[in-house]
Design a protein that fits this description.
The chain is an alpha/beta fold. Helices cover 43% and strands 20% of the residues. Helix 1 (13-24) crosses helix 8, helix 4 (125-136) packs across helix 9 (288-310) and helix 5 runs antiparallel to helix 6 (202-213). The N and C termini lie far apart (42 Å). Bound molecules: adenosine-5-diphosphoribose.
Length: 312
């Protein structure tokens, strides 16, 4: 079988780490794309990584480019194009800057990689992935947003540290929009099947939920820019589910057509990712409190979407 082709659109902090993981895991040939002003950065990172393959024994090619023709035929695109947050900014503050960027990327992706499975990471995530799908006209199976896997990873880590438990045993799920009112779903959160509410007090859980919701901002506050290691790992988990037809059940931003009572918006819900892309949206039972939180989160997503729709 020919090596798979992985197009990384945006060769910045997350793009570079995505490339590193894709090479380390030998997922396929990697093309790191950025705008002409950053072409040398993309080429430099690609060359540096390709030199590392002499040590790892990986035969994959790594290319840096600002020419979309080099991305043509990619099996999968992971999109980080756009600016990240600075301290004090919300993800929604990025909409004016990142909207023209996602439109440019969508137009080129449609032209050069019409069959690719697309994972969008650029923020504000739910609005950017919506606009990518709208602009390309691609199916909802082919276009997904990365947020829930990352938010759930953050949630799981904080729970594991609180309990002094192994991270391997913690199962956590965060649904809703990728914003400060995301929905950590306690009723499905367990330590190897043991409900988390039996292990951690209500007050402590409330403070862990609060830290999870602000988890991205905490890192922006520390580094002056947004996170990249965990976002890249989260997206690679989704990419592997697609490339290896793993049928993993992961919380991802998916296009809703009535599921959970919402339609014509992207929001975090449990989906199954396999070779067909987003093969299924799984509707789980939520308690009344979780439903109310999801409604609030959907309202916030819709507000940003309205801004996006007005500027079409
Ligand atoms: N096409 C391709 N790449 C672009 C375009 C474009 N039209 N416009 C900008 N870029 C590139 C930038 O040149 C930059 O190299 O996107 C890259 C983004 O990299 P960083 O600034 O390092 O940002 P990063 O931390 O990787 O985050 C990217 O993901 O999580 C989100 O909020 C984050 O929106 C941000 C995005």
């Amino acid at each position: 079988m020919a090596r798979r082709k992985i197009g990384l659109i945006g060769a910045g902090n997350i793009g570079g780490e995505l490339a590193n993981l894709a090479v380390a895991k030998q997922l396929g040939d990697v093309v790191l794309f950025d705008i002409p002003q950053k072409e040398n950065l993309a080429k430099g990172k690609a060359l540096d990584l390709e030199q590392s393959t002499a040590l790892s024994g990986c035969d994959a090619r790594v290319t840096g480019t600002s020419n979309w023709a080099d991305v043509a035929g990619a099996d999968i695109l992971i999109i980080t194009a756009g600016i990240p947050r600075k301290p004090g900014q919300s993800r929604d503050d990025l909409v004016a800057t990142n909207l023209p960027i996602i439109r440019d990327v969508a137009d080129n992706a449609k032209k050069h990689c019409p069959d690719a499975f697309v994972i969008v990471i650029s923020n504000p995530l739910d609005a950017m992935v919506y606009e990518f799908k709208r602009r390309t006209g691609a199916s909802r199976q082919k276009v997904v947003g990365m947020a829930g896997v990352l938010d759930s990873a953050r949630f799981a880590l904080f729970l594991a540290r609180e309990l002094n438990a192994s991270i391997k045993d913690v199962r956590a799920m965060v649904l809703g929009g990728h914003g400060d009112d995301m929905v950590p779903v306690l009723s499905y959160c367990t330590v190897n099947g043991v409900p988390i509410r039996q292990l951690i007090s209500k007050d402590k859980l409330a403070s862990i939920i609060d830290r999870t919701r602000k988890g991205g901002g905490e890192i922006v506050g520390l580094m002056g820019t947004s996170a990249y290691y965990a976002p890249a790992s989260s997206s690679i988990a989704m990419a592997e589910a697609f490339l290896f037809d793993q049928k993993r059940l992961l919380p991802c931003a998916a296009y809703l057509e009535g599921e959970y009572g919402y339609k014509d918006l992207y929001m975090g819900v449990p989906v199954v990712i396999g070779a067909g892309g987003v093969e299924k949206i799984v509707e789980i039972e939520l308690d009344d409190e979780e439903k109310a939180m999801l409604k609030k989160s959907a309202g916030s997503v819709q507000q940003v979407l309205d801004v996006v729709k007005k500027s079409t």
